[in-house]
Amino acid sequence: MAAACGGALGRVALQFLRTRGGIAGPVSSLVPRVPLQGAGRSYGTGGGSGFRSKWFWTLPGRRVSGRVLGCAFLLGGGGLGLYHTVKSCFHNQFAQQMTPQSDTGDLRLTLYQYKTCPFCSKVRAFLDYHGLPYDIVEVNPVMRKEIQFSQYRKVPILLADDGETLQLNDSSVISSAIKTYMISKDKNLKQILSYYPEMKYKDEKGKEVTEYSNKYWVMLGEQEVEEHYPSKDSMKEEVRWRRWVDDWLVHLISPNVYRTPTEALASFDYIVREGKFGSFEGFCAKYLGAAAMFIISKRLKSRHELQSDVRQDLYKAVNDWVTAIGKKRQFMGGTRPNLADLAVYGVLRVMEGLQAFDDMMAHTSVQPWYERMERATEQHQGKH
Fold first, then answer.
1. Is-contact 321 241, C-beta < 8 A?
2. Residues recognised as catalytic
3. Is the pLDDT confidence value at 144 over 50?
4. Which part of the chain is the GST N-terminal domain (predicted)?
5. Is 333 exposed, middle or buried (0-12, 13-18, 19+ CB in 10 A)?
6. What is the spatial distance between Cα 279 and Cα 355, in angstroms, rounded to a whole number?
7. ∠ CA 215-256-14 to the nearest 5 degrees?
8. How many Cβ atoms from other residues are within 10 Å of residue 121's Cβ?
9. What is the bridge-based pairing of β-strands 108-113 and 135-138?
10. Alpha carbons 39 and 65: distance in angstroms, whole number
């Protein structure tokens, strides 16, 4: 989803560069052909009556004079974020003050991310829960200059340095590999990464796709599995639901966030009011941007064969998750969250502050679990 978003934004920005600040052709020609898979925002906490319904957004630190629609796509496809940005800044400052010590020893971590990406939110949820200190480098989704060092052009990317800098790609690989590193006593990180080999192939459209073997598995020995999982079945359950997050849950975000013109327009209205737009730029950002994202959300609904009312798919998915946990467990991991818990939480929290999030809380039974996850992550309860 993050890669599709970045690619789409690049096409929009390039279109404006070619027109030198003017709008050439119909609006439909500026709508990316590649569907944007999901919109999200960066980490924010707050539970119970603290759930908020205002739309918050963030602007990249670039001028928007001739590329306002590109910025509109950037904000629409990749960001629902001022609210979460402020909370993320507070969270990061709080985390730095705590300076937690962890099982990663002297491993220095740097996360390259879009703060508005659900996959990046998954990684932050994992790192925060385990109390792992890390630096953040925010990547511009259009230019992506911050990751020019990498042939892998998606985010998240995690650089891990323990004397030798290693690059970890893919949110699921990052969580699995670092978790393996935390548990294993006889393997270094370079050895562990060899368990997740990269595979490249071309899809039905001829586009090269990069995947990773074993990415949902924590690679442990039999004794380590017995020590850290109640049973082998519980490990398989964790893998199954982590895969479900990537294959299904993330694809429900954008269609729900941009479900109606009113919901789409509300977000861009906030951008215009808070951003430094001229009258023409503000008009384009608010109306063309909202219209474009509304159209894209419909394409996603069709692509993933969602119901007419996409909320129903979201409600069913969330209730299926809660049912799988059951009434006797606090988390899927039992008394403590496992990697499936962290993945689901990381994706769902990108909707905080939006109507879709409020509706989900009102029409599903997820809130008690969500609040437990929020506390566990904020308090670094996975730190040993």
1. yes
2. 114, 117, 119-120
3. yes
4. 111-175
5. buried
6. 27
7. 75
8. 29
9. parallel
10. 24
Which of 287, 355, 352 lies closest to 91, judged by CA? 352
How far is it, in rounded angstroms, from Cα 54 to Cα 83? Answer: 8
Region of 32 please: left (phi>0), alpha (psi -120 to 50) or beta.
beta
Min mean pLDDT across 132-136, 146-150, 195-199, 353-357 is at: 353-357
Question: Which residue, 212, 218, 219, 220, is CA-closest to 246?
Answer: 212
Q: What predicted TM-score, i.e. pTM, was given to this entire model?
A: 0.72
336 within 8 A of 376, measured Cβ to Cβ: yes
Question: Measured between alpha carbons, how far is 259 from 294 in angstroms, rounded to an integer?
Answer: 7
Three-state SS across the chain?
CHHHHHHHHHHHHHHHHHHCCCCCCCHHHHCCCCCCCCCCCCCCCCCHHHCCCCCCCCCCCCCCCCCHHHHHHHHHHHCCCHHHHHHHHHHHHHHHHHCCCCCCCCCEEEEEECCCCHHHHHHHHHHHHCCCCCEEEECCCCCCHHHCCCCCCCCCEEEEECCCEEEEECHHHHHHHHHHHHHCCCCCHHHHHCCCCEEEEECCCCCEEEEECCCCCCCCCHHHHHHHCCCHHHHHHHHHHHHHHHHCHHHHHHHHHCCCHHHHHHHHHHHHHHCCCCHHHHHHHHHHHHHHHHHHHHHHHHHCCCCCCHHHHHHHHHHHHHHHHCCCCCECCECCCCHHHHHHHHHHHHHCCCHHHHHHHHHCCCHHHHHHHHHHHHCCCCCC
**pLDDT score of 71:** 41
Residues recorded for the chain: 384
Banded pLDDT at 364 (limits 50, 70, 90): very high
User: Could you tell me the CA-to-CA distances from 221 to 166, 175, 188, 237 in Å, in that order?
Assistant: 23, 18, 14, 18
Q: Per-residue pLDDT tens for 340-361?
A: 999 999 999 988 878 899 999 9
The radius of gyration of the chain's CA atoms, rounded to the nearest angstrom, is 20
Spatial neighbors of 49 by CB under 8 A, at least 6 apart, are none
